[in-house]
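Check the record.
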Amino acid sequence: MARHAVSRRNFMGGMAAAVGYLSTRPGAELWAQGGPAAVAAQRARGPMTPEQYDRMAKISSNENNWGPPESVMKAMNNAWKYVGRYGYPDGNIVQRIAEHHGVKAENILLGAGSGEILDVVGTTFLLGGKKVVGADPSYGSVYQHATAIKAEAIKVPLLADFQQNTSAMIEAANKHAAEVGFYYLCNPNNPTGIVVPKQEVKQIIDNLPKDMPILIDEAYHHFVNTPNYETAIPYVLEGRPVIVARTFSKIAGLAAMRLGYAVAPAPIIQKMRPFAMNSINVLVKHGGAASLLDTAAQAEVKSKVIALRTKTSDDLKAYGYDVIPSETNFFMVHLGRQVQPVIEEFRQKEVLVGRPFPPMLEHLRVSIGTAEEMDRFMVAFKQIFPAKTRQTNVAQG
């Protein structure tokens, strides 16, 4: 009982801080993460009507714009009969995930999207003023949650080629080891789309203090197409202090349904469990279980994404604009001017594009949508930006 009480107090303290932070921000702003200018623009516009939203080409949030396949929709529809129940059959989702990765059920923790998993890791390991070490820019939710619970982040800038500076990150983690709660690695990285090669991941794990938790965010794992990358789940099987975060929000097309999970050694899962909300709904549990089995549908989405990512990147480069090579369902294009006003210009043309990612404020993140949406993006891009010649690029560089 005493152990449970302490965990609950820590949880409530962390949650109180987080709720206080979140309650000061309108709902749309929780997702925008675009800084003061984006917040002001959102407030001035007000919410979109459903009709306005439906007209938009939605290539801003790295979703699967084709949505879940028929197998997943069927599984969710069949689960409606359980919506009035508490002790319902849940599609055996935890066991399905465990079998999918070759681990035990005790190695799995469900979350409302991988976003909750990232928050749970933060609350578990940062309370008491600990620090998280990670790259900058990367997925900012981890750093924002640290701030919300009165912790800090040690953010290491990317290299000139937009790779994560893993050697400097390892050095920072070791230098501040007594203060570090966990190490964060987004792989592939959001917003750049670049992977950390498997050899570097091994160097990170081998060269950090042996008891330092390492959170590896693999939200975009399914889109990677290079042999120089590997999932970090084998390190969990070795018993290393690795927490792998995964989500059904991307390739599975279940973003609004909210389902993600952590894969980690059982003792780490036990530490994290008291801070999880256990709020996953019955429909998405059945949908997630079905999604794991429908590998053909995921392969089809991956193929479409890679084809459209390649085509759009090539079109932009032919028009004179540099694109960062990506292994995800998004990419970044260098605009040569501030991105914030450009977001609004695209919006006026009914195209939603990504938010700013300081300090890369001249790079626009573009998610991969359907072929029709990517065509609309290119039409809008050419209306907003002039074509650049090689001489123009050299002069501006």
